[in-house]
Structure formats: C-alpha cells, structure tokens
C-alpha cells in the first residue's frame, strides 16, 4: 500500500523548552515532539522536518522548525 503524498504526521509538542542554540539535534526534537529518534530521522530524510546533514549528524534550524510547528498546529 502506498503512502499518500499529502502525509502529515501528527505533532503534539511536549512541555519541554527547546534549547536556545540556533540548530537543534535529533534528540532535542524527538524529546520535544515525544517521538522516537528514528521517526525524526525519517521525517528529516523525507523533508517533512527542515534540516541538514553534516557527515552522519542531522541538524534542524531552530527558527525553521518552530515555524513549521506553528504552521502545522495552527490548522
């Protein structure tokens, strides 16, 4: 069965505050969204979450991530 192209995961941010660093780690985002690190990495590779990879490590720009959270939770 194929996944729909408009797949939008349900994001329910936790009560944790995000670090003030300009780039977040996969662990930061996984704790904040209460999802596994594997799920966050999959969403990054699919382009659902904005991010970039340096060698083997993913980084998520904090500002873009918060904009995406706001966009998805304000619907």
Automatic annotation (TrEMBL):
Species per Swiss-Prot/TrEMBL record: [Clostridium] leptum DSM 753
Protein name: DNA-binding protein
Pfam name, any one: HTH_17
Domain Helix-turn-helix: 24-72
Listed GO MF terms: DNA binding
Keywords from the named record: DNA-binding
